Amino acid sequence: MQKRKTGLLWKNETQQEIYNFANGDPWLYTFTIGLQNVKIPSRFLRSERFKLAIWAQGRDWLHALDIYQLQMTLESDVTLFSLELDAARIMDAFKFEESWPINMTLAGTYTRAGGFDWILNATKYERRKNMRGKMISVGVALPSFNSLDDPNLLNPYYERDKDYYGRRDYQTWQILADIHNFTTEYHVTKIFGKQSNKSHALFDGFVGLLQNSTVDMGFSLLRVKEREKVVNYIRTDINLPPYSIAFVSLHPKSFSRWRALLEPFSVRTWMCIAFILVISTIVLGVGLSFDKNHSPYLSATIFTFAAVAQQGLDLRKPRRATNRFLILLTLLFAFMIYNYFNTALLTALLSTPPTTINNLQQLIDSGIPLSIENVPNNEALFIKTFNISILMKIYNEKLQHPSGFLSVEDGLDKVRAGALAFETNKRQLYYQIEKRFTDNEKCLAKVIDAFPYRLSRALTIRKDLPYNEFISTTLLLLIERGITDYIDELWDIQPPNCMSRDYIPAGLTELLMAFCILALGFVLASIILLLEIKVQAYLHA
């Protein structure tokens, strides 16, 4: 008996016999209902933490309770003992409303000879889950809809980016109400609950309604320690997967792509090619000198460049077979090099650039300006609730600029322009990317988790109310049977798919090396021209 957490309501002629019957347990809080109207403190009868013994004079203690108009509810685990000589009937009792009759079920019997004989083996949850006639008032935040009147409110494909948590919780709550057979009175607010007076821990939104006892429960909130001072949370998380936030940015262009003309070959390969071409040019120049060529080495150099550029033969018909054979080998070598180079160059220009930003620290070090959604949750996430150094570093060093806090629309517009990286919750982020970004921008978008773990949300409940155990157990049953997974699949938004990239023409960045080579040629040609002018002027003088 002592293992069972119970309250005891006794009926007998003498208090002493009942006290002896209870084995004199010192933990019993005892109240006598006699000729005087003795009020029972509600903190005992509305709590699961105390064990009670209530003695009533007269034959019918229920009648005595009605006579003295004791307004009470039996919401904890209460057992009634009705003593008759040497035996007692043990009744399981509860009532959630003061105006209800006491709901009683025979739990067992007691005899002095045989002791306790329990016949009620159902769990407390099964015995109490039928709350027929109970009205529970609930607070819900719907900043966009601001009411429950819209017929499409529970359509997960209608205005998917608006009031996701409130609408999803509303659907889950209807299932809970059907299981427990209670009715609901809804109080709609525009905000969840922000601390309006920090010195006195006063909140607005439906958290404030819970705080001043206007409502019994509230829809899901992040588990934040400031709110835990004034409300309790249901033990089971309301949504799976939990709340998570992330930064999104378009991956910056790689400044190394200006070396695209050099990247197809390694440095050692370029050195080997240059060495072979120089040797070939020198040997060809020597051979052309025997053909009585007026400028053999200049002709050999021009031929080598023409062969590499696939511009054909720029020489008079060589007379010697050695020169012809060397020219043929040079053309074949240049042709093979050209094909390898061209293939590698196209692969480098058309392939997806490698990602260099894969975590939050790399995002910070990249120099891209950061911005976060201008909502109260972010103040708690980045500053107050979680002592995470990297988030505090972001707040102190990267958000202190005019664009540090933006709306989702403005933030993602700046992301598309390549101006910054923006943070919001993942579900809204995926929806907006799917809605606003082009296919190519979806492929370039990089989503980086801003939190080392995901945050849980849970239904809120007014302190000292007895529904936590029932709602938590029911939510666990919904999770076990896959109902919450089904609801999550209806309401959740998957990451956008990168279907196809736009054709991106080569820009100045990719062609910079070609322009550099051309500019270098202009400079060298100008220098040679000036030298020739000087030489000709000197010779004529």
From TrEMBL:
Where exactly are the transmembrane stretches of this chain? 267-290, 325-341, 511-531
Q: Name one Pfam family in it.
A: Lig_chan
Keyword terms of this UniProt record: Cell membrane, Glycoprotein, Membrane, Receptor, Transmembrane, Transmembrane helix
Gene3D superfamilies to which the protein is assigned, alphabetical: 1.10.287.70
Domain Ionotropic glutamate receptor C-terminal stretches? 267-446
GO MF assignments: ligand-gated monoatomic ion channel activity
GO biological process, any: detection of stimulus involved in sensory perception
On the tree of life, the source organism's domain of life is Eukaryota
Its principal location?
Answer: membrane
GO CC aspect terms: plasma membrane
Q: Where in the cell is it found?
A: Cell membrane
This protein's membrane topology, according to the annotation, is: Multi-pass membrane protein
PANTHER family documented for this protein: IONOTROPIC RECEPTOR 20A-RELATED (PTHR42643), IONOTROPIC RECEPTOR 40A-RELATED (PTHR42643:SF30)
Q: Which family does it belong to?
A: Belongs to the glutamate-gated ion channel (TC 1.A.10.1) family.
By what name is this protein known? Ionotropic glutamate receptor C-terminal domain-containing protein
In its UniProt entry, the species of origin is given as Bemisia tabaci (Sweetpotato whitefly)
**Organismal lineage:** Eukaryota, Metazoa, Ecdysozoa, Arthropoda, Hexapoda
